[in-house]
Write a structure and sequence with these properties.
14 strands, Rossmann fold, six-stranded parallel sheet, globular, single chain, five-stranded parallel sheet, about 425 residues, Single alpha-helices involved in coiled-coils or other helix-helix interfaces, alpha/beta
């Protein structure tokens, strides 16, 4: 990671820029893929999977036999780990179940709000080089808690045309049987518009690469999406109380996601930055995805800053997907943070705990969208309806207010909808 010492604030915006492929190139390519899926349906999905993934499929759908048979191929230790993670994720997300609201705003005027599950949801699960069964845990569990009636999983197939056994095992654990072996922008298009065999979803969820993120943006005028989630991001705020080897391991844990991941280490300790870089050089030789991680580190920086306040301000400007605070008093720094997807405090809170099993959700906004989006929750799988009931007495109290406001906006029919009722009440005919 390159080391940048005490940058002036007018350079912060430039330092915060995300690495990205040519945005226009990606936009045009995704638009072409979406058009092909809309016009070609199932056949276009088969063709695109062959062209883009190098896989020839006999069928788009995973069979129930494949799902039920996946368990036998998984290590018992992995199954136990999945069970522990699922339990923690379920416990945290069950606490998010929304309560019904009922308020009497004035005598005779009752207002309520209730939450209802989204009927059909599409879960995008990244696959290919690293099938992320953990993402399925993070999406399926809150969807089931919310009560979603139909859950469809979309995930790219491996080179043999099969979906990873770990993903199938998790799906089977939760009774999800609709699994489509399609990934990339074409999967997002199939969710948004449907095909002969695939039913359109009501909302799309899940992270992905720049093509998936762009596809979600392009289809968002036709179907709801959870958020914009692109390449992985990690920012670390650290002081001399932190352990350089710990932080180097955390940086590599995100660097191995993909070459377009971006990592930052912010510290007031110049030597500490060099120590972390030295650890990175040592540890990167021990991981299997060294080439990918090296590419990500080229997008990444160690920034030496003047104070804790400056580090917090820079973190808020960047708005990282993951923010680690490894300082003597991490909560003191955390109180200054307003933009982040998920925050990890202290030397013994690795980011990978949130990725897998602590209980919080790892499906988080990236690319600065943390300013306006939060991570996935049970609420993400629900929609709200408001109710109001007004008695005669309530309308007599409130009617005049409505009439004045409607007339001021020139909406006389709005005013009359109240006036006609008030007149009937006054005449005693109602």
């Amino acid at each position: 990671m390159k080391i940048i010492e005490f940058p002036q604030r007018d350079l912060w915006k430039e330092l915060s820029e995300r690495p990205q492929k040519s945005a226009e190139t990606v936009r045009l390519r995704v638009s072409e893929i979406i058009d092909r899926v809309i016009s070609g349906g199932d056949n276009s999905l088969l063709q695109l999977t062959k062209e883009l993934d190098g896989v020839s499929l006999d069928s788009l759908f995973v069979t129930k036999e494949e799902i039920s048979g996946a368990s036998q191929f998984l290590d018992k230790g992995l199954k136990r780990a999945i069970d522990v993670a699922a339990s923690n994720i379920e416990l945290f997300h069950k606490a998010q179940i929304p309560v019904e609201i009922e308020v009497e705003t004035m005598p005779g005027i009752k207002c309520c709000q209730k939450s209802f599950p989204i009927k059909r949801v599409g879960l995008y699960i990244p696959g290919g080089t690293a099938p992320l069964f953990s993402t399925l845990l993070m999406l399926a569990i809150p969807a089931l808690i919310a009560g979603c009636g139909e859950i469809a999983i979309f995930t790219p197939p491996g080179k043999e045309g099969k979906v990873a056994d770990s993903i199938l095992y998790v799906a089977g654990k939760f009774g999800i049987t609709e699994i489509i072996r399609v990934g990339g922008a074409q999967a997002i298009a199939a969710m948004a518009y449907g095909t002969e065999s695939i039913k359109k979803v009501d909302k799309i969820y899940g992270p992905g690469n720049s093509y998936v993120a762009q596809a979600k943006l392009q289809v968002s005028s036709n179907v709801a999406i959870d958020m914009v989630a692109g390449p992985s991001e990690l920012m670390i705020i650290a002081d001399k109380s932190a352990n350089p080897s710990f932080l180097a391991a955390d940086i590599l844990s995100q660097a191995e996601h993909g070459p377009d991941s971006q990592l930052f280490l912010l510290t007031t300790e110049r030597q500490f930055g060099f120590d972390v870089n030295k650890e990175l050089e040592r540890q990167i030789k021990t991981i299997t995805r060294e080439e990918i991680a090296n590419a990500a580190l080229e997008n990444s920086s160690v920034i030496i800053m003047n104070s804790e306040d400056e580090m917090a301000a820079f973190a808020n400007q960047y708005g990282a997907e993951h923010l680690m605070i490894s300082t003597e008093e991490p909560w003191r720094v955390a109180k200054r943070i307003t933009n982040a997807g998920s925050i990890f405090l202290g030397n013994y809170s690795p980011e990978s705990a949130g990725d897998y099993a602590s209980g919080t959700n790892h499906s988080l906004p990236t690319n600065g969208w943390t300013r306006s989006f939060g991570g996935i929750s049970v609420d993400s799988f629900m929609h709200k309806i408001s109710f109001q009931q007004i008695t005669k007495e309530g309308l007599q109290l409130l009617g005049g207010t409505i009439e004045v406001m409607a007339e001021a906006e020139g909406l006389l029919a709005h005013r009359n909808a109240v006036s006609i009722r008030l007149k009937e009440i006054e005449n005693g005919t109602e």
